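protien #1 (seq + structre)
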Amino acid sequence: MAVLNEEQTMLRDSARDWVREKAPVGAFRRMRDTAAPLGYDPAAFAEMAQMGWAGVVIPEAFGGSEFGYLSLGLVLEEMGRTLVASPLIASSLAAASALVMGGSETQKSEWLPKIAMGEAVATLAVDEGPRHDPLRTALKAEKTGAGYKLTGAKTFVLEGMAADLFIVAARTSGQPGEAKGITLFLVPADAKGLSREQRHLADSRGYAALNLDEVELGSNAVLGEADNGADLLEKTLDRARVGLAAEMLGMSVQAFETTLDYLKTRVQFGQTIGSFQALQHRAAKMFTELELTRSCVEAALTAIDNDAADTPQAVALAKAAAGDTLHLVSREMVQMHGGIGMTDAHDAGLYMKRARALEATYGSTAWHRDRWGRMAGY
C-alpha cells in the first residue's frame, strides 16, 4: 500500500523475478536436506550482493546505494515468500545499521564496503538466555590497560556460523537489567578466545552459540560510546525487527495465496471446498489480517526512513502484528490442506517451522505487545 518511487518499484520487481526463478521453496528444501553448514547457499547470496541488495541501507560513500529501509523491506518481503535463506537481515540490515549509526570512520571504512559487496558477513550477538531480553546482558567486559577483556556467552546468534564479525553486547558497568553499562564491541570471528557452536532450530537456518573466554580487544573495538550502548543497541534491534516483520509478511502472503489456490481446486462432495461458507469466512479473516499487517510493516519501515519520533512504537506494532498474522496463516495453511498439509512433502510445514522461529527472534509477539503498552503509558 506504500507509494513507491520508480527505483523502489524496479527493486521490488527484480527481487520478485529473481526469487521465483532462482530461489523457489524447492531450493530451500534442497539446502535443508543437504544440511548446508552455513544455513544458506553462498552462491545465491553472492548473486544477491551483485544485484546490490547487501548495500541497500549502506551509504554510497561506503559502497552502498542508500535506498533506505522501505526499499530493503520490499526485497525481504519477496524473499520471505519462498523462504530464501541468506544473511541479509543479520548482516546487511542489523550489523550494517549498527555500524552506520555508531561506527567511527575507521570502523565504517573497514567493514561497510565488505558487507555491501557480500565479502563479509556480520551479525549481532545479543541474547544470553532462552528469551529475548537485551537489558539482561551479563557478558563481562573488563577494562584493561590496552583495552578490554570479554568473558561470557551468547546464544541464538543469527548466521553465527557464517559471520566474519560479531557485534557483541557486553556489560562494562552496572548490573543485568540496567540500561546503563551496556557497551557494543566489534569482535572478529578469528579473535583468540572466541569459539562458536552450531545450534539446530526447527527452521533449519544458521544459528550459533558463542563462548568468549577472555577475548582481548583494543579500545578501538568499542562501537559507539562505552557504557552508553543501550540506545544504539535498541535502535539497531528495531531495524532488525522490522526486517523480520517484512520477511514474515512475505511468508504470510505466500502461505495465504497457496492456500487460496487449494481452496479453488480441491473438490469434495462434488464441489470445490472454497465454496463452503465456513472456509470462506476463514479465508476472509486471513486476508483482512494481511492487509492490516502490511500497513503496520510499511509504516514502521517508513518511520525509520523518516527518523520519526514514534519509530519504536511503530516497530513494536509491526513485529507483533506480523507475528500474530503469520501464526494464523501458517496454522490455517496446514489445516486447510488437510492430510497433505501435515506431511513433510508439502511446503506448509516449512512455513510453520520458520514462522515459529521468527516469532521468537528479537522479541516475541507478547514481548512487543508489552513493549508497546509501556511506551503508550499503560
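ok now protien #2
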Amino acid sequence: MHVTMIGTGYVGLVSGACFSEFGHTVTCVDKDAGKIEALQAGRIPIFEPGLEKLVQSNVAAGRLFFTTDLKQPVANADAVFIAVGTPSRRGDGHADLSYVYAAAAEVAEALDGYTVIVTKSTVPVGTGAEVQKVVSETRPDAEFDVASNPEFLREGAAISDFMRPDRVVVGTDSERARDVMRELYRSLFLNETPVMFTARQTAELIKYAANAFLATKITFINEIANLCEQVDADVQDVARGIGLDGRIGSKFLHAGPGYGGSCFPKDTLALLRTAEDLGQPMEIVKATVAVNDQRKKDMAQKVVDACGGSLQGKTVAVLGLTFKPNTDDMRDSPSLDIIPALLAAGATVRAYDPEGMEEARQMLDGVEFCDDAYDTLPGADALAIVTEWNAFRALDMPRVKDLMRSPVLVDMRNIYDPEHMRGLGFRYISIGRPAVNP
C-alpha cells in the first residue's frame, strides 16, 4: 500500500519507517526543508535506538522517501497519516490543534480518489470530527474517511513498540476504512496482535486515558516513596509487593523525580481542559498534575538538605538531563526544574548527559556542561543522578569519591545499593529509602 506521513517528528518518522519495514511504500512529508535534506542524506534528527539503521535500510530498498511537497504523495496514497505536533496551548493547557487542522486542509487540496485520513497525533476527543469538517469544506467532492489511530510509543523503545505492540487501536465507523487499516497492519494480524476497532471518539479518548493512568501510577508511587522516607520503609520493596498483584502490575511503579517528556505533561493537561469544558472535572488527574509539578521542585531541596541546608558556594555535579534514558528529548524533563533551583540556591552546577547535551545547552543557562560523567566531579560537594542512563549504573565509585570534595550522592533513580554506598564511605540519599551515612 501507499502511505503518506505528514510530519517527520518523533511519531511521524518512527511510524513511517516502521510501516515501510512492513513492506508498504511510505513518503514522509515535512515543511522543514533542512530536516528533509538531512533525512535524504541519511542523517536522523532525533536519537532513537535502531532508527537510523531502519531508515537507511528502507530508503535503500526503495520503500521510504522524504519530501517537502505533499501533493503527489497524498494523491497517490491509500492512507494519509497526520503526525504533526499538538503541544500545550500557551495560557490554558489545551492541545494546540492548529498544525493538525492546517495539515488537514492541505491534504484535502491534494486528494485524488478514495483515501483514509488518519490522525496519528495525540488529539482530544472530537478532533477527528473537526478534521472531517475541514476536509469536506475544503474539498466537497473528495472521497475519504477520517480515522483515529493513536500511537503508544515509548521513547527509547519505539521501534519495538511499533513492531510488537500490546495492541493497535483504530477508531472509525467506516468498513471501507477498516479494510484499509487492516491491510496496513496485516503483518501484526499474522502475529496475533490485538487490533481493536472502535468509534473514532473512543479511540481518541483511549490514548488520553492510557497516558493519564500511567502518569497517575508514577505519581502514586512517588507519594508512597515520601511516606516510606518518614517511616524507614523501602519503596522498592513496597512497589514489588504491590506490583506482583496481577491487578496492579509492576510497570510504572519506579519512584523518582517525577514524569516528564513529550506526552504525559501535555496530555494530562489537555485531558483536564477537555473534561472541564464538558463540566466533568477529573480530580484524580488534576491532583496528579499538581503533585508531579511539586515533585520536581522537591528534588532540588533533597540536594540542599544533603549538603547541610545550604548550597551557597558549593558545586553540584548532575548526571542525566533528558527526561528518561535512550532519548535526547529534554521536554518537561525534571532537570529543567531541578537545575535552575540549584542555581538559584547558590550552587555551581556541572552537568553531563550522553545524548541530551545539545538540546540542554539551549534550555539551561548558567550550567557548566562537561565532556563525561567524571568531568563533572572534581571538587564537587554533591553528585545528583537525575536520569538512569546505563552509563551511570556502573560508575567507578572509588574514583568518584576521590574526585569529589564531599562524598555525597543524591540518587534520584535508586540505581545504587544503600549499604554498598555506605561501605564505600558515601552519604547516600535515594528516593523512598532510608538515607545512609558512612
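Residues 2 and 77 are 5 Å apart (CA to CA).
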